[in-house]
Every structure is written in structure tokens, then in C-alpha cells.
Protein: Sigma-54 dependent transcriptional regulator
Organism: Methylophilus aquaticus
Amino acid sequence: MLAQISTTNDKSIHLPLKKKILLVEDEVLFAKAVVKRLQKAGFECEHAETLHDARLLIKQFEPDMALLDMRLPDGNGLDLLSDFVAKNVNTIVMTAFGDVTDAVNAIKMGAIDYLKKPIDLEELLLIIQKNEKTTDLQTSLDYSRQRDTVVNESVQLIGESAAMQSVRQQIARIAQLSALSDAVQPTVLIAGETGTGKDVVARYLHAHCENRDKPFVHVDCASLPSELIESELFGHEKGAFTNAVATRPGLIESAEDGTLFLDEIGELPLGLQAKLLNVLERRMVRRLGSTKERPVQARIIAATNRDLYEMSNEGRFRSDLYYRLNVITMQMPPLRDRGQDILLLAYYFKQLTEKRYALPHHEFSSNAMMAIQSYDWPGNVREMRHQISRAVLMCTQPQITDIDLGLPQSLTMSTTQALAAELPLTLEDAEKVMLLNALEQARNNVSKAARILGITRMTMRYRMDKHGIAL
Ligand SMILES: Nc1ncnc2c1ncn2[C@@H]1O[C@H](COP(=O)(O)OP(=O)(O)OP(=O)(O)O)[C@@H](O)[C@H]1O
């Protein structure tokens, strides 16, 4: 299980919690051995000898997983299994040697696995750990499924530059079209460097269309684990593969009549690009393991910070999919090209932070305003949001100066040079220098920086967090 803690920015951090396992077993000596072994392996464990006690513990202890014996003094373990399944508690049943019927019934009812007695403790531990990994992935996926289904009407798109006005006009036109006809809505592609506001534009578009009260499903193609991406997108039938314990609609289907936002579409594996193209062309989706096709009504918006045209020329992105996506394209300009919008955004983020933390009003000094306008913002609006919020939070004077902003340009040396100059470097420092260098080369594009270093995007993110590198 993962605890979600909101941070001051738009991301969340996940802290691992101890998994809770409830053992329902009337053989006391065996139960003690299991509890001891599981506690040693880092689990929190409770033991119930009867169905009655187990029912009380389900409420009080709220287990993540259960180990359930079939023959209990006050009834059959199967009677309790439905309680566990209803509460999404992954349950492994323990059956008497040779009792296949119970095991089959338990799996049909939703148990995730079964073990025959006598039970080998190490085998039991292996099964639990295997399940733990799958649930962790599932939990984070469930979270990403839920977190974006509601779009706040008040999504703000700040900017008056010609480029931003053109984006707004395009959005207004698309919204107008969606009000005019029930026909399939054209696909929208939002392109632009990282942090330019592609996600904001997708939400703003959804919030201004007829279907604004329908789900907005955000799929980050770069962070979905490759082994789960297909079933997550397309869904699956029960039994389509190991661990497919229940039928589950995919993210495409869960967008219903709303919006499906395919973020970082350039990261989608080639095999799935073909399947997605099929969905876009035929507006039908088929779950893994199913023969039935279901209609897809959702508006589809894709976003990318990569050059899909170049990728398609190099054979890394299907050109047919590129042309299919490229019906209406909105190009988000880099922040450095937005003229007066730079200061507008700086004031907006200053006020936002002051309001959020109930801080007194600040002004920017003229040097600060010059620094904001002359800096080239490689991380675009996201970088500005972080820098301004940090400066507002740390500034104890009524005026925010260029020093408070601490923009890299105002330093005599770049951060990486400064770090490298501090010899001798520890291994930790050397790693930080490599990360910063790669980010600098990739103009703060995390996926690109990860590729430069030959590591995955997730590893890159983890290492950036470790060194406190925020973009
Ligand atoms: N025009 C804008 N008005 C207000 N806030 C904005 C605007 N553009 C971006 N932001 C803010 O900047 C941050 C980054 O924006 P967003 O996540 O939309 O960028 P992105 O282009 O999707 O980035 P990435 O390519 O890394 O996914 C968010 O906190 C967002 O709220």
C-alpha cells in the first residue's frame, strides 16, 4: 500500500507503509510460527483462531492481505472469503492436503492463490512477496486512474501573448464544434517542450467542452509499467493472464464519453501504437482475452515533448499514427518566447503561493523582474512555478529580490561547474553532477536526460528526488 501525501506542487510523494496481514488459522503452534516469520520479513501481522474473531479484526486491523485456513472451529473459511474479497483484501487460502475442491472454489470466489498443507514457510513468504509487488503496481495505477477523473472547472490558463491567444481561440473553436454535433470529436495533439503547460491545456479544453461533467482520464504513457501498459489501456477479462483475477475495463473505456488524455504519447511502445491506431480509426476497443468489441466515445487528446515527425522518420513512431493524431495540433511555445506572459505568470504564481500559505503580500524588486525576464527558463512554466513559490516561501522581507530568486543565470558559474570545482568529489556528488549535466543537455526533459544516462525515467526521477533536484 502507498500513502499519498500532497506536496506544495502538483505532484504527490509516496511513502511505503508496512503491509498488514491477517492470518486466520486454528492450529496455534503453526500460526505462531507463521506470525514470527512474517514479522521478521517486515510485515505487520495479526492472528485470529475463528471466523468470528477474524470478522472483528477485518474492521479493526484493516488488513491488506489474508491467509485463510479452510477448516475453522466455527465454520468454513469460504464463508469468510467473500468478506475479504468485498474489502479488496488479497487472500491466499490454505487447504488440507488433497482437498482440491475447496481450492478450486476459493479461486472462483476471488482468492488470489492457494497453498496445500503442510505449508513451507519460505514458499508462503515467496507467494506473499510476489503478490505484494503486483498490488503495489496496481495501487499506484488505481491512484492514477482516480486522481484525474474530475477536472476542476477553475483550471487556469494564464497568458495573453499572441501564441497563448491562438491556443485559446483553438480551444474555443473545438468546444464550439463539440456543442454543434454528436459526431466523433477530432483528435487533438498538444506539442511543446516539457513544462510548457500541455497538461493544463488538455484540462482547460475538457473543462470548456460539452462533456466537462464526464471523466477526464490522464494516462502517462511514460510512467505506466511496460508489463501492465496493454492491460491498463485496453482492459482485460478475468483469466486473460496470470493475476487477472477479475474482469477490468481499461483506461480507454473508463474515459466513457469524456476525455482520454494520452500524455507523453512518444513513449508508447511500437506494438501498442498499432493497437491504439486501430482504436482511433475504428473507435472500438477490445479487452485482452475478449472477443467482444466495445465502442469508444471519448475525445482523445495526446501530448508530447518529442518531435514525433522526426521519430516517425527514424522508425521510432508509427507514421500512420502520427498523421492520425495530427488532426488539430496546438504548439505550446517555450516560456522564453512569451514576452509579457513571463511576468504575468510570475505574479500569478507569487499570488497563488501567498494565498495558499496565508502569507503577506510581496513585491518583486526591479532587479528581480529583470532577472525573471532575462532568464531563459529551460524548464518553462513548471520551473518558474517552483522558483517563484520557493522564493515567496523563503523571503521574509516585503520585497523579493533577484538574490531571493536565485536563478542559475545570476550565478557566476553554472551549478554543475560549481559542484565539479569542489574537489575532491564524493561518489554522491559525482552522481549529482552527472544528473545535472544530463538535465542541462536535455533542457530539463527528464525522459531525454534518462536516455542520455542510459537509465529508465523512473530511476532518473528516483535519483533526482534523492539529490533534491527539482525542475
Ligand atoms: N498557462 C499556464 N497558466 C497557469 N499555470 C500553468 C500554465 N502553464 C503551465 N502551468 C503550470 O506549470 C506546471 C507545468 O505544466 P504542465 O504539467 O501542464 O506542463 P507539461 O507541458 O504537460 O509538462 P510535461 O511535458 O513535463 O508533462 C503546472 O504546475 C501547471 O499548473
